[in-house]
Design the sequence.
């Protein structure tokens, strides 16, 4: 059994905040069409955890995504924050909503029959840091004073 560690997270605008006791070995990629549509991602990165290991400090709002499940999200900025069945002890949080998601690796694929293979191994694609796109970087600086994280 892996050790759990407290991790914080929330939405893009900061209206929703949480603390979760996370076991990073429970990270996985979901490829189901519901998750693809709900997040706009191909795939979505989740970490599964017991509901009792999740503490919402503010928010979230909830979307009844099916007759058997719902999804926490921020109604101000639209950030998807997770998935939970109506029945059961566990839930999932989105890896991207963690404050420090770096270094977390997926341990399995779920709904693998819906994998978009071209999006799995992208290691051969050209990489372009935001800092190398001068016009876009300057647009951010002019609007907000800084380039976003």
Sequence:
């Amino acid at each position: 059994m892996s050790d759990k560690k407290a991790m914080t997270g929330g939405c893009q605008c900061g209206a929703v905040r949480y603390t979760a006791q996370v076991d990073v070995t429970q990270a996985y990629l979901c490829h189901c069409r519901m998750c693809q549509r709900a997040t706009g991602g191909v795939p979505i990165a989740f970490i599964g955890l017991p509901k009792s290991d999740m503490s919402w400090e503010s928010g979230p709002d909830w979307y009844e995504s099916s007759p058997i499940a719902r999804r926490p999200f921020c109604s101000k900025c639209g950030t998807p924050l997770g998935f939970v069945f109506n029945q059961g002890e566990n839930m999932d949080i989105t890896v991207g909503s963690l404050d420090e998601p770096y270094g977390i690796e997926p341990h399995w694929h779920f709904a693998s029959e819906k994998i978009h293979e071209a999006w799995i191994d992208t290691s051969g694609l050209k990489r372009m840091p935001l800092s190398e796109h001068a016009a876009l970087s300057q647009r951010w600086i002019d609007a907000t004073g800084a380039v976003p994280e």
Q: What stands out?
A: The longest helix spans residues 134-144.
